[in-house]
Amino acid sequence: MENVISFDWISWNVHLYPIHLSNSFNWYLEGYKIEDMEIGTKIFEKRKIIYKDKMKIATLTYQPKSKIIHPLIGQIQLSNEILYKGNPTEVYNQIMQGLRFEFKSFSRIDICMDVTRFESGDCQEFINQIVSNQIMRLSKQSGYAPFKGGKSIKFTGISWINKGGITAWKIYNKSQEMRDFDNHKQYIRDKWKFYNWNCQDDVYRVELSLKNFSKINIVDKQNSNYLTKSFDFMYFNISNIYSYFLNSTFKFCYNQKKSNISRNEKYILFNMQNIEIKNYQYNSKIQDPTRTSKIVVSDLFDTIIKTSETELKTCLELYDTLFYYINKYNLYDYFEKKFNIDLELLDLHKNELEYEKRTNKKFHASSPIT
Known about the structure:
Blueprint (H helix, E strand, L loop, with lengths): L3 E12 L17 E4 L7 E9 L2 E10 L8 E6 L1 H6 L2 H11 L3 E14 L7 H9 L3 E3 L5 E2 L2 E3 L3 E3 L1 E4 L6 E7 H7 L5 H9 L9 E7 L20 H6 L1 H12 L2 E3 L11 E2 L23 H16 L2 H4 L4 H12 L3 H8 L3 H17 L11
Antiparallel strand pairs: 1-5, 1-6, 2-3, 3-4, 4-5, 6-13, 7-14, 8-11, 9-10, 11-12, 12-13, 14-15
């Protein structure tokens, strides 16, 4: 089978208009059906499912539960099926133009490469060698290894965790996962067949998950920032984006007991041409969290919550100080779990307060919608 690259998750933040929150607003999108859900999410009160010809296309969530998130912020996630079967860019344009939303930033993107064999060897053997420390990743790592078994254990994958970072990686037996869930997602197998899968070999997935897009700066030669601004650029440059992060954050070598592991023989997953990208900065100088740093972060956020928006506009340094401590002490997971707040949305709220302070008018509040 040829190597198969796909998007497996795309979600982004949007800015709504006041009329979207009005009971009189007609949630109509030509060619689609929009259905209200009774239950929202842990972050948003409202949730709507967008269908086309009985096929789920996307999920819209809006009306944040926390007052610290701007009330006009929402999120849209494309369905997994549309990413494999449909035309995501067409759906994106129809939803954004038809419902008159404004794109703010991506919230999460997953890109995966499906293979039956790596360049340097067998996929299952690679997993076994990682677990037994015969192969090493050329960067600091932590994670876990799922397994199956009774009298004996078979490791089915490896997940690397990068708390508070940009990238997270997984390698696992996708065929086994689909068998475990009663052979769901036939559309994935259909795509494999298109790339000459023999319907017998197990397919392994190397999955990249991108988050914290405020830290990602991918630019072209004219210094235009694309990944965090353009859906089309991201979608049509899937191979280049995947290749860049693969070559910059996900390399392996054999454990040959050398003091300098960069001199060990390399293990190659794929041969992909690297994208020419500059100005990408990856923060690797993160200090360990302390009890004091957690108290400082909690107190800062508590102050922000209790301060009116009018007052916050005069002391936006509170946000900068909060973000500084979260970044310095790697407190992303701690903060989001304790306060149930997405930091990307908090950053958007701060930016909009800056806009209102600078222009002396409410952010988009006067923009008309008919």
